[in-house]
Amino acid sequence: DYWIIVDELIDDATHHYQQFFHLAPDAQDHTHKLPEHHGLGIKAPNLLIVQPHNAAISMSSQPGWVSPEYGLKQAAPVICFSQTATGSAGFQTVLYPYAQTPPLLRVKTLAVEAQGQAVDPRLALALSIEIEHDDYCHHDYLFINHGGAATEFNFADISCRASLLFVRRERGGGIISIQSNQIEMLRIADRSLLDCIGSPMRLNFADGQLYLEALTGAAVSL
C-alpha cells in the first residue's frame, strides 16, 4: 500500500548529494510541509513524501514543469532532499499515496545494536513507520543489514539475524505480517518466532499463513 525507497551512496570522498521528486501539476501551490514530529517531508495532493529526520539532510521545494504534450508546459514543484557527506551516506524515503484523507504518518530511524554495541546506520538500518487512519492503525518496521554481518541485531523490541526484515504490527503490538530474506533468527517482544542458525530462510507470514523457503530450495508452507 506504499513504497519505501532506500538509496545507499557508497564512496570515501566528500560529496554533495541531491535527491529529487518531481510532482504533478496539481501539486503546484498545494504542497505543505509536515509537522516536525512526523519526519522530514511534505503533503501533496494524493501523496505523502516523508523521510526520517537526519541533521545532515535538508529539504526544499524548487520550481519545475511538466510537459503533457508537445508545446505545452505546466508548472509543477520539485521536492529536493540534500546532504553533504564524507564517505557512505543514504536517503530513506516513504512514498504514501492516498485517495481522499491522508493518514497520520510518522517516520523515524531506530537505534540498532549488535553484541551490546551501537551499530552505524550505514551498516545496519532500522526504520519505524507509524500509520494512523480512520479505518486502521499500523506500526511497521523495516530492517536492512547493509554490511552483511552474520550476527544478531536488536532494535525496538525486535531481535533478528537477517539481511532484510519487514514487520507490520497492530496498535496493541500483535503481528499482522512479516516478510524477510536470509533470516536465521527472529524474536519479537521476548517471544522466539524462528531459530535456524546456519540455515538461512526466506520467510513470508500474512493472513494467518506462514511460508518458509530454505535458500537451498526446500519450501514449507504452514
List the helices and strands and how they pair.
Elements: E1 3-9, E2 14-22, E3 32-33, E4 40-44, E5 47-51, E6 58-62, E7 65-69, E8 72-75, E9 78-86, E10 89-97, E11 104-110, E12 113-114, E13 117-118, E14 124-132, E15 137-145, E16 153-155, E17 158-161, E18 164-170, E19 175-183, E20 185-188, E21 191-195, E22 201-206, E23 209-214, E24 219-221
Antiparallel strand pairs: 1-10, 2-9, 3-4, 4-5, 5-10, 6-9, 7-8, 11-14, 12-13, 14-15, 15-18, 16-17, 17-20, 18-19, 19-22, 20-21, 22-23, 23-24
Low-pLDDT residue spans: 218-222
Structural class computed from helices and strand pairing: mainly beta
Count all strands and give the number: 24
What is the helix/strand order?
Answer: EEEEEEEEEEEEEEEEEEEEEEEE
* Distance from first to last alpha carbon: 25 Å
- Inertia-based shape: globular
From the alpha-carbon coordinates, what is the Rg to the nearest angstrom? Answer: 20 Å
Number of separate helices: 0
Task: Please give the share of residues in helix.
Answer: under 10%
Strand content: over 45%
**Major beta sheet summary:** 8 strands, antiparallel
> Roughly what is the average pLDDT, rounded to an integer?
93
Q: How would you write the strand order of the largest sheet?
A: 11-14-15-18-19-22-23-24
